[in-house]
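User: Need the bound-state model for nicotinamide-adenine-dinucleotide:
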Amino acid sequence: MKQILVTGGAGYIGSHTAVELINAGYEVVIVDNLSNSGIESLDGIEKITGIRPAFEQFDLVEKDKLEDFFTRYKNIVAIIHFAASKAVGESVEIPLVYYRNNLVSLINLLECQLKFGISNIVFSSSCTVYGQPDQLPVTENTPRKDAESPYGNTKRVNEDILKDTIAANPAIKGIALRYFNPVGAHPSALIGELPLGVPANLVPFITQTAAGLRSELKVFGNDYDTVDGSAVRDYINVVDLAKAHVVAVERLLDNKNKSGYEIFNLGTGNGVSVLEAVQAFEKASGVKLNYKIVGRRAGDIEKIWADTTFANEELGWKAKTGLEETMLSAWLWEKRVRGME
Ligand code: NAD
Ligand code: WQD
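Assistant: Bound-state model below.
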C-alpha cells in the first residue's frame, strides 16, 4: 500500500485529511509534535475508519529526527505538509518562533525529499497571501500582496521556497493549496477543531458562545462595503477541503500535473458575511446566538472569496457541502466535546 506522510496529521485539517486518505486506500503515517493538538484525534480517525494510522511524535525542526524517520519509513510516496504554527496574532508577538517553525520545517522536509528520493509534496498555503485583493473573486494569478503578519509571510516565503526548490530540482513536484476559511467538522463529530484558549476564528467562537463558554460573540465591524456591512469570507467545509488533498496527491502520483509546481485555490466560490454566517448557524442549530456589533478588528480585510475554476476544472474537485450543514457539523462537534449531547 502507498504510504503518505501527513505532517500535522493530529491537527484540525490534517486529521480530516487522514480520514479521507485512509478511505481512499492509502496508508497514512502521521508526524506531529502535538504542540497544537492531542493524541485523541488519532482515536477519532480510528473510530471513523477502523484503522489507526502510524504515529511518530517529534518536531520537524529537528532534522536528525526527521532523517531518522525517513530511514525507518521507506515506502513514503508523497508528503502532505500541514504542520505549522497558525495563530496570526501570536505570530506578531513571537515572529521568530513562527519563522523558525514554519520555514525550517519545510526546508528540512525538502532536503529530506532530495536525500531520500521522495518526489511529491502538497503544501498548506492560505488565502492570506492575497491580502485585500484589488479584484474579486481571486484567481491563482491574482498578485500576492505584502503579508499583514509574520504568519502570513511564512506562507508567502514557503510558497517561494517550494517554487525555487522545484525549479532547481525537477525530481521534486509540488502543489500549494491556498485554503480560504476552513470550518466545520467531520459529520460523525469524532474529529473537529479544538482551539486552545479563546478562539480567534469566527466559527469556534460562535459554537463556544452557543455552548455557553463565552457570553457573547463580538461581530467585528458593520461599516464595510459589503451586503450588510460585516466582513465577507469564503467558508469552506473541512471535509470537502480534506478531499481536495487526496485529489492533489493523486494528481502528483499520476504525473498529471502540468508543471512541477502548481497552485490551487480551495474555497467555495461564495462570499459570506459574518452576519450571514451567524444566521446560518442559528438556522442549523436552532440556537439563538448572543452577539454584539463592535468596531473593526485590526488587520482584518474587508472581503475575499475564491475563483475556484482552476480547482474545479483541473483537479475535478468542487466544494459540495452547504454552509448550514457545515455549521451543524461544527455545532455537533462542539456539543460532543462539551458533553452536551
Ligand atoms: P492545527 O494547528 O490544527 O494543525 C497543525 C498541526 O501541526 C498541529 O497538530 C501541531 O501540533 C502540528 N505542528 C506544528 N508545528 C509542528 C512541528 N514543528 N513539528 C511537528 N508538528 C507540528 O492547524 P490546521 O488548522 O489544521 O492547519 C493546518 C495547515 O493549514 C497549517 O499549515 C495552516 O497554516 C494551514 N492553514 C490553516 C487555515 C485555517 O484557518 N485553519 C487556513 C489556511 C491555511
Ligand atoms: C472571519 C471573519 C472577522 C471572530 C484567519 C487568518 C487567515 C486564515 C484563516 C490561516 C472576520 C470575523 C471573527 C470573532 C468576528 N488562516 N470575526 N468575531 O480573519 O478571515 O482569517 O483565519 O491561514 O490567515 O487571518 O478568519 O475566522 O478569524 O474571521 O466578527 O470573534 O469573522 O472579523 O471578518 P480570517 P476569522
